[in-house]
């Protein structure tokens, strides 16, 4: 039976809230916090589930929560509000351990997405989700990117951070050089000295890494310089640019490899 927590000042509640708020604490603990029934159930398929918190109302709607193999706590509504950080919530929260993924474990000749200084959590989450949907083998995050285990990125990715390897690296140009040595052609998404998308094709059996920058800054010159080619999406002059997650998803779809067991929308 789940232990009942009635105080907002309970140490287990404070711990979960700190995970939600602090990237440094998440890294130190190798753990992260997630909210919402669907998101938590998706993450539980691929990430180590450590603790789950739920209200009685949430448990009544989803009795399967009581069968999960982890520490369980029944929380009162005012405690759930603190976990959510707002009065409105689904009443389901969980703490997960980080997936055990290292850069050295990425497959040689795979297909990868690399993000350079993409700070917006919604864009990072959406791009991770697109990379997972289109069969990519991993996502590499350079310095300055939003934390993939922050609550906003988790929500935007809909649990995809557990479905595809996501690794952070201290030096993105060095990571791209290493991927190139592993059989990947590195493509920079850039406007200048680039080829239009429909003029660039990579055979499905060949490895590649697609590098995408933020909407405001684009890719750093250091990242562009280590890429073998640059590619752009042709658009009409009616708009100046595309949202980073939209542009990235178009590129990810275009350069997808063979997708086994895929579902059609």
Automatic annotation (TrEMBL):
<protein>
    <submittedName>
        <fullName>RNA methyltransferase</fullName>
    </submittedName>
</protein>
<dbReference type="InterPro" id="IPR029028">
    <property type="entry name" value="Alpha/beta_knot_MTases"/>
</dbReference>
<keyword id="KW-0489">Methyltransferase</keyword>
<dbReference type="InterPro" id="IPR029026">
    <property type="entry name" value="tRNA_m1G_MTases_N"/>
</dbReference>
<keyword id="KW-0808">Transferase</keyword>
<comment type="similarity">
    <text>Belongs to the class IV-like SAM-binding methyltransferase superfamily. RNA methyltransferase TrmH family.</text>
</comment>
<dbReference type="InterPro" id="IPR053888">
    <property type="entry name" value="MRM3-like_sub_bind"/>
</dbReference>
<dbReference type="GO" id="GO:0008173">
    <property type="term" value="F:RNA methyltransferase activity"/>
</dbReference>
<dbReference type="Pfam" id="PF00588">
    <property type="entry name" value="SpoU_methylase"/>
</dbReference>
<dbReference type="GO" id="GO:0006396">
    <property type="term" value="P:RNA processing"/>
</dbReference>
<dbReference type="GO" id="GO:0003723">
    <property type="term" value="F:RNA binding"/>
</dbReference>
<dbReference type="GO" id="GO:0005737">
    <property type="term" value="C:cytoplasm"/>
</dbReference>
<dbReference type="GO" id="GO:0032259">
    <property type="term" value="P:methylation"/>
</dbReference>
<dbReference type="InterPro" id="IPR001537">
    <property type="entry name" value="SpoU_MeTrfase"/>
</dbReference>
<dbReference type="InterPro" id="IPR029064">
    <property type="entry name" value="Ribosomal_eL30-like_sf"/>
</dbReference>
<feature type="domain" description="RNA 2-O ribose methyltransferase substrate binding">
    <location>
        <begin position="33"/>
        <end position="102"/>
    </location>
</feature>
<dbReference type="InterPro" id="IPR051259">
    <property type="entry name" value="rRNA_Methyltransferase"/>
</dbReference>
<dbReference type="InterPro" id="IPR013123">
    <property type="entry name" value="SpoU_subst-bd"/>
</dbReference>
<dbReference type="Pfam" id="PF22435">
    <property type="entry name" value="MRM3-like_sub_bind"/>
</dbReference>
């Amino acid at each position: 039976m789940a232990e009942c927590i009635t105080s907002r000042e309970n140490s287990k509640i404070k711990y979960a809230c700190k995970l939600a708020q602090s990237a440094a604490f998440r890294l130190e603990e190798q753990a992260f916090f997630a909210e919402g029934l669907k998101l938590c159930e998706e993450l539980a398929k691929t990430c180590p589930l450590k603790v789950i918190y739920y209200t009685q109302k949430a448990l009544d709607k989803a009795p399967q929560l009581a069968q999960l193999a982890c520490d369980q706590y029944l929380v009162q509504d005012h405690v759930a509000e603190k976990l959510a950080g707002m009065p409105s919530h689904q009443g389901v929260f969980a703490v997960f351990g980080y997936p055990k993924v290292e850069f050295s474990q990425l497959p040689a000749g795979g297909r990868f997405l690399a993000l350079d200084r993409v700070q917006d959590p919604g864009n990072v989450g959406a791009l991770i989700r697109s990379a997972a949907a289109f069969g990519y083998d991993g996502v590499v995050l350079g310095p300055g990117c939003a934390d993939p285990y922050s609550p906003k990125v988790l929500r935007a990715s809909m649990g995809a951070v557990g479905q595809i390897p996501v690794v952070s690296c201290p030096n993105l140009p060095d990571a791209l050089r290493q991927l190139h040595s592993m059989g990947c052609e590195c493509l920079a998404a850039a406007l200048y000295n680039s080829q239009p998308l429909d003029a660039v094709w990579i055979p499905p059996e060949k490895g590649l890494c697609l590098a995408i920058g933020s909407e405001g800054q684009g890719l750093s010159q250091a990242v562009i310089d280590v890429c073998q080619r640059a590619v752009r999406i042709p658009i009409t002059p009616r708009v100046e640019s595309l949202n980073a997650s939209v542009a990235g998803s178009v590129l990810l779809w275009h350069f997808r490899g063979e997708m086994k067991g895929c579902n059609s929308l």
